[in-house]
Design goal:
This protein is an alpha/beta fold. Helices cover 37% and strands 19% of the residues. The protein has 38 helices and 39 strands. The strands form seven sheets. The protein has a seven-stranded antiparallel beta sheet, with helices on both faces. It has a seven-stranded mixed beta sheet with strand order 17-18-21-20-19-22-23, with helices on both faces. Strand 19, helix 20 and strand 20 form a beta-alpha-beta unit. 57% of the residues are buried.
Length: 1076
């Protein structure tokens, strides 16, 4: 049937900030939904708090609200906009939960809004664990033995019936949040308690363990006429017990027979019909490897993380089609835009293997053990495509940005003799982020496929594939191989198995360049194949490509148009996230406007940049020198490559690509090096007379110690050429210096470490600018709210600045423009400053797009990445008629979002090493309201009354007095431990004295657990598990009590609470801010 005409305006709920379990895949789905609705002529209203997304660009929806994604704010938007319908299925679990809450509370009924894309009853049936269990059993399928509980008493009673180990699954959470495995009653009590706290409805499913069973996922789509198609099936490499977001996955399933797949597909269709879901769903099954017994684990009645993977794996635009179905179409009425001739009712077919590998960042959270379980820990993921599992796995491994170039054999493995079988066995038995490597070491030690299967539960077929790679590696490592007559065939076979030139160079005892020369000699080069949803049955209308080794290159090469290739950022990780993908996508748009054929290279399945219809051509490939040079050879010498937008990943490729005669667009690699190389950069600053903190560069520990002796403590130690402040630390004494300097040298690898005099109590400032080589303009100046020493990616910041004097701002502008011109920047540059004692010091300059570009663009209403791209094509700022927009009539606050709740034991104290996974934006006419919105959007439950617990270090006791007085004036009660309480009472502030953590009976932890503390202000005097401060922060995170660990953060928070107490918060779309 045709689309519905009884609805005119539709609201889409976004997913909010990037968090573990809810990544940038929902930018992809939300963007697709907005485009699909616009195609059909509907008016759209979008709400999302994440400024780093493409979907929150004002062009995608008619009304774009960058506001907190919760019931209070969405009701305000509904009241103002009066949409006819709401789609909750494009915003992940957050969107689904909110849609369900709005329906259940009567808000949708109150304003006459219809829930489309997912029926409320269907959501409840899928998400409520008891209703789901009953529905599955009704159709004759099995679920694990379980109990659905709402209290600790019920949980303890259930634990006496269900056998251990017991899986704890909180209801209505994302990424398995709060989920865990309890192996006995001693740890069950704590895990059940935190599970109940993690669930927004305080309900937990306690489930019989199916640990060691195989995990199988189905991606299905159903329309309102009951037509159902399978998009694809996905098999997890890891058995049950590891969250699917953390497991290696392959599509299609590799170890199941066609008959088994058909049986599970039929079960999936029965489940969809019983639950009553229309649109796209993901269903997870457990399969007993011994007898094939099937149990249903869960159904996600929405576009999910696996949906993004399935969409990119097949080329089938799941989010777009699901949106069309939501407005009334049936599958046969929706065109498959990949082929442009088949309907969406044709099931996708693939003739290649896709492998997804998760990207972890445990090194950022050293207090947390590297153990994987039902709660997701991965920050991001990569996807690779090949003709075989072996090829796609090796491509995925070199895509991860971990310094590895495949499944070992790249010179990065530890000495095998340094690992005992006992050590290896421990790593095999307990799932962890390094287990794949330990399977390699086990095979090399001769432990055997059967033994490894028994220890890990991983299917023997997968282990055998890894064993074959090791056998091939051993063959290529023989000294005689290169001189044998069979060498050309063996080299070709190795490339077909996904071995990189770096691996082969290590095996053959030569260099990567010489391996490339050998390949050329024997005519062994990659070809490109289409991923087209139909296994080549029809001609693909979209160029969605992957490389392999074989015959017939399907890459359509255009020799008539101007061409450019943009290199993406690879997997999401802390320090390099969706902000860089935003810049890449804007680069694509700008180049298209300038008449270029644009190719995108990336390996991240979660992004808008890897949508089949973003660029003219998509290369789903690793971002390594070898892979980019292969693309360059196909595209031709005249094709320009952009390395400025994908963060540090493509920036590190700039010099080797330039040396290989690849044309680099924008700022030259030489200019980039002048900013990155400490000595060269110092020379530039000396010439421009720009102050910087005393600093030094060291290539070894002895040099580093000499520099520090001359400089004096405190110092900031960091590796060079890394993102996200990896291994960066402020050091106050020699003992700490030795420890952190050694780690920095390990992380820095072949590069030196950098040492700076740390400027205590300084105010930090971020500046984005744009330059065409002859003229420079300021895009935005951001004042950090937290004091110096906290990574710029973690600090809240405000634009325009609110406390910096005009003469200081003028100096910042002057320095920034002079530096951009001196470095001959052509595009974007980010500069970081510190102001101390009325002196503006430069900290660093990055001649590339920074993570703040999307935020500045949303705050100012200017697409800076687009303009920068046009400058790279030769346009000038004057030709583009660009003007600075620094005199804004509204205030924008960027706040970071942290994953501490997923890393139990990790300390929440911020420092120079970045810890945040995403960001939100607060937008209003004044700072107080904007800051309040940013905190609510980041997940803080800001109280308007109650008790505030204060514990601050001695240095902050004078400043806390003003904060405490203001809180008392606002009606709050103050609680503190003895030292802080005495300091406050000297100034007449009545304080409830609370016992310290180690004191029994009614201590601060007891009060937090009892819900008697509504806000915590804790500036740490101590770090580490033994300190009181650490325990307070740990309980604040696990129990969801809002907190701040800096004085500046406390001052801003109190100001926000006061602002909201005087004037209610209002909502306004971006489009209206830009009119003013």
């Amino acid at each position: 049937m045709p689309k519905r005409t009884d609805i005119k305006k539709i609201m889409i709920i976004g997913s909010g900030p990037i968090t573990i379990g809810q990544g940038c895949e929902f930018d992809y789905s939300g963007t697709q939904a907005c485009k699909a609705l616009r195609e059909e002529g509907y008016k759209t209203v979008l709400v999302n708090s994440n400024p780093a997304t493409i979907m929150t660009d004002p062009e995608y929806a008619d009304r774009t609200y960058i506001e907190p994604v919760n019931a209070e704010f969405v009701e305000k938007i509904i009241k103002k906009e009066r949409p006819d319908a709401l789609i909750p299925t494009m915003g992940g679990q957050s969107g689904l939960n909110l849609g369900s809450e709005l329906s259940k509370s009567g808000i949708l009924k109150k304003y006459g809004v219809e829930l489309i894309g997912a029926d409320y009853n269907a959501i409840e049936k899928a998400e409520d664990r008891l209703l789901f269990k009953n529905a599955i059993q009704k159709i004759g399928l099995e679920v694990p033995e379980s109990a659905y509980v709402g209290t600790m008493e019920e949980a303890l009673a259930a634990a006496k019936v269900i056998k251990f180990p017991i899986i704890v699954r909180p209801a209505f959470t994302l990424g398995g949040a709060g989920g865990s495995i309890a192996y006995g009653m001693s740890d069950f009590k704590q895990k059940a308690y935190y599970g109940l706290k993690a669930s927004p409805i305080s309900r937990v499913l306690l489930e019989e363990s199916v640990l060691g069973w195989k995990e199988y996922e189905l991606e299905l789509m159903r329309d309102h006429e009951d037509n159902v198609i399978q998009i694809c099936n996905i098999e997890n490499f890891d058995p049950m017990g590891v969250h699917t977001g953390d497991s290696i996955c392959s599509a299609p399933a590799q170890t199941f027979t066609a008959a088994e797949c058909a049986l599970i597909k039929d079960a999936g269709i029965d489940i969809m019909r019983e639950i009553g879901v229309n649109g796209g769903v993901n269903i997870q099954f457990a399969v007993n490897p011994k007898n094939g017994k099937l149990k249903v684990i869960e159904l996600n009645p929405r576009v999910s993380r696996s949906s993004a993977l399935a969409s990119k794996a097949t080329g089938f635009p799941i989010a777009r089609v699901a949106t069309k179905l939501a407005v009334g179409y049936t599958l046969d009425e929706v065109l498959n835009t990949m082929t442009k001739r088949t309907p969406a009712s044709s099931e996708p077919d693939v003739d290649y293997v896709v492998t997804k590998v998760a990207r972890f960042t445990f090194e950022k959270f050293k207090d947390t053990p590297d153990i994987l379980g039902p709660q997701m820990k991965a920050i991001g993921e990569v996807m690779a495509m090949g003709r075989t599992f072996k090829e796609s796995l090796q491509k995925a491994m070199r895509s991860l940005e971990t310094g590895r170039f495949g499944f070992g054999g790249d010179g990065k493995d530890p000495l095998l003799s340094s690992l005992s079988e006992k050590q290896i066995a421990e790593k095999l038995k307990l799932p962890n982020s390094q287990r794949l490597w330990y399977i390699r070491y086990a095979l090399q030690k001769g432990m055997g496929i059967k033994k490894i299967n028994e220890m890990t539960g991983i299917d023997p077929w997968f282990i055998a594939q890894l064993d074959e790679l090791i056998a091939q590696e051993n063959k290529m490592s023989k000294k005689s191989i290169i001189k044998s007559a069979a060498f050309p065939d063996e080299l070709r076979s190795a490339k077909e198995s996904g071995f990189s030139d770096v691996q082969l160079a290590q095996m053959l005892g030569t260099t990567q360049d010489k391996v490339r020369a050998l390949r050329k000699k024997f005519d062994i080069k990659p070809v490109y194949k289409h991923a087209d949803t139909c296994a080549g049955e029809y001609d693909a209308k979209s160029s969605y490509l992957y490389s392999t080794y074989g015959s017939q290159n399907e890459n359509p090469i255009n020799t008539k148009k101007k061409k450019a290739v943009i290199l993406g950022g690879g997997p999401n990780r802390i320090g390099q996230g969706i902000e860089f993908d935003y810049c890449c996508v804007h680069g694509v748009f700008a180049l298209k406007e300038e008449g270029y054929e644009v190719s995108m290279v990336n390996c991240n399945p979660e992004t808008v940049s890897t949508d089949y219809d973003t660029a003219d051509k998509l290369y789903f490939e690793p971002l390594t020198v070898e892979d980019i040079l292969a693309i360059s050879e196909d595209e031709g010498k005249k094709t320009g490559f952009i390395v400025q937008f994908g963060g540090q990943t493509p920036l590190k490729l700039a010099v080797p690509l330039k040396e290989a005669d690849v044309k680099i667009m924008g700022t030259s690699p030489e200019s980039i090096d002048r900013a990155e190389d400490r000595k060269k950069f110092d020379a530039v600053l000396t010439e421009l007379d720009i102050p910087r903190p005393e600093n030094g560069t060291a290539f070894n520990l002895a040099e580093a110690k000499k520099i520090v002796r001359e400089m004096g403590y405190p110092v900031l130690v960091r590796p060079s050429y890394v993102l996200g402040g990896r291994a960066m630390e402020i050091v106050y004494d020699e003992e700490s210096f030795d420890k952190y300097a050694k780690e920095a040298f390990i992380v820095s690898e072949k590069y030196p470490i950098l040492i700076d005099k740390f400027l205590e109590d300084a105010v930090e400032v971020d500046v984005d600018c744009i330059c065409d080589g002859k003229e420079a303009l300021i895009a935005g100046i951001m004042e950090h709210i937290e004091e110096a020493g906290i990574h710029s990616g973690d600090s809240a910041c405000v634009l325009p600045p609110i406390t910096i004097r005009g003469d200081m701002l003028e100096k910042i502008k002057q320095y920034t423009k002079a530096l951009a011109l001196k470095l001959n920047v052509k595009g974007l540059m980010n500069v970081q400053y510190a102001i101390r004692n009325d002196i503006v010091y430069i900290l660093e300059a990055n001649p590339r797009a920074s993570r703040t570009v999307p935020f500045v663009s949303k705050a100012t209403g200017v697409a800076w990445a687009k303009l920068a791209t046009k400058i790279m094509t030769g346009k000038t700022l004057k030709q583009l008629k660009v003007k600075e927009k620094l005199d804004l009539q509204h205030v924008s606050v960027k706040e970071s979002v942290f994953p501490f709740s997923k890393f139990i034991g990790a300390d929440t104290v911020l420092g120079p090493e970045m810890k945040s996974t995403g960001e939100v934006m607060g937008l209003d006419k004044d700072f107080g309201h904007a800051y309040y919105k940013s905190q609510v959007a980041a997940g803080q439950k800001i109280p308007s009354k109650g008790t505030v617990f204060i514990s601050v270090k001695n240095k902050d006791k004078r400043d806390i007095v003003f904060v405490a007085k203001k809180l008392v004036d606002l009606g709050f009660k103050i609680a503190a431990t003895l030292g802080t309480a005495n300091a406050l009472e000297q100034f007449g502030i009545e304080t409830i004295k609370v016992k310290k953590v180690h004191e029994k009976g009614g201590n601060v932890i007891d009060m937090i657990k009892a819900g008697k503390i509504n806000l915590i202000i804790n500036t740490p005097a101590g770090k580490g598990p033994r300190s009181d401060d650490y325990q307070i922060r740990l309980h604040a995170i696990s129990l969801g009590v809002p907190y701040t660990t800096t004085m500046s953060g406390a001052q801003a928070l109190v100001y926000a609470i006061e602002s909201v107490s005087k004037k209610e918060v209002e909502v306004m779309p971006l489009q209206e801010y830009y009119k003013k």
